[in-house]
Amino acid sequence: MTSNAAILPIVTVPTAKSETFAVRYGSLCGLLLLATALRLPLAFWPNVIHNDEIYQYLEPAWRLLGHQGVVTWEWRDGIRNWFLPTLFAGPIALGDWLAPGGWGAFVGPRLIASFASLSMVVTAWHFGERISRAHATVAALAVTVWFELVYFAPHTLSEPLATAVILPAAYLLTGQLSRSRLVMGGALLALAFVWRFQYAPASAVFALGACWRDRRNALPLIAGGLATLTIAAGIDVLHGSTPFAWLILNIQQNLLHDRASEFGVAPAFAYVTLMLSLWSGATLLMLPALWRGWRHAPLLIVAAVVNIAFHSMIAHKEYRFIFLSIVLLVIAAGLGSADWVQLMRQRAPRARRYWALPIVCGTWVLLSLSLSATRFMHDYWVLGLGEANLAADLSADPEFCGLALYGLPAPFLPGRGQLALGRPVYSFYPSDPLAKGQLPALVKRHQQEFNRIIGPMTLASELPSDFSPRGCALMSSDHVTACVFARRGTCDLAATSPFKINDVLVRLNY
């Protein structure tokens, strides 16, 4: 059954039957190679955007493999589902087998996330191909090189992973529809919902667009979605949870009880302000490109605006939350900027017309390079490097048998080596009710349980005298210089300390 097209005014350009695969997709293959070259090396760069990519996804997957790990309040309260950790368990196991000690377990799933991000390049190409080959090239190149998309690609977060499946769904649910496209589009939107349900309002734009002119399209769309949701429910049951109980609990905690606000709030216009700061002068080019892009793909811009508006109503804000909007806007701007190629070809002398496409593509590359090198972005590129270096050094220390985190701005420490420390971790945190302002005395009393401490250099005088500093690093997330303090000797692993990290997190409700 073929149904009416969704409301997306994109002109389809027929392709000659004699056109070979190499001619038609040669540029796309080249751009995929470029995207791979830009993204895969970043999987090895120990940059951590947020604690969540370790403690909400990689640590739970590590625990699924039978290892000990940190359990945060989200998992204790049951507001997370096991779909992504289950998917990551295989790459983590393979990575740890190939490169033990935490390095492989960290890199394995990041490589998978990097490859998943290539779906955005392919989708941008196909959106553009509906108009012309130039539109396909410019849109795909924009997604390939745009600095924010490259930056987020390797990170094991739900936002870029959900975006990687929403984009193909958006393509399938626009243009000429069929039953198979509707089923597949519904399945992908449901998958994105399970991974990042906060993207549901933006996803609904594409679902409504597909059903706007023909309500019969809703049935295959729903059928595809139900198939994915059935698999998700099965994963919940496999892990001993009630299907989708996590969704209800998450809405209760974060949307109704506003639990996330405990981790910071921002005004409603914060996302717009941050986008303008990151895009800087490039905004002057992006806005007219988006204006022209509206003619080709209005639903992309509508979905982007809906997503930003929805997240702007939530008090707790992080830039990664609107990643989907950034990708949609870049594709729409890429389609709009490709119109300038046609304009230049029409107005330029015949001998110079071939420069039109390189000029527009080169502008995208230069804009991305310049914006990625700003001081503002520099702080993002180095997030978590200090923590990762300290954790990786510990995992390679043959004498290390127990770790204490002392007086740090947060009671846990993300890092590349965190996954496979394999030793007990203790946390002495000022807000711990059991500490009661007696951190120096407590760490001295329990020092036989660990022989390494990570703490701020400024608190070195509070540590037992037999601990001496070794390596130090700037913890970029908190702008605190922390050091590894070491003592000789073994650890009393039989001790039952109340300061093991998971016990501390329970008391702090972290």
UniProtKB/TrEMBL annotation:
InterPro entries: GPI_mannosylTrfase. It comes from Bradyrhizobium macuxiense. The keyword Glycosyltransferase applies. It is a multi-pass membrane protein. It is found in: Endomembrane system; Endoplasmic reticulum membrane. Keywords: Endoplasmic reticulum, Glycosyltransferase, Membrane, Transferase, Transmembrane, Transmembrane helix. Pfam families: Glyco_transf_22. This is 4-amino-4-deoxy-L-arabinose transferase. It comes from the Bacteria. The keyword Transmembrane helix applies. GO terms for molecular function: mannosyltransferase activity. The chain crosses the membrane at residues 21-42, 111-128, 134-153, 183-209, 221-248, 268-290, 297-315, 321-342, 354-373. The lineage of its organism: Bacteria, Pseudomonadati, Pseudomonadota, Alphaproteobacteria, Hyphomicrobiales. Its main location: membrane. GO terms for cellular component: endomembrane system.
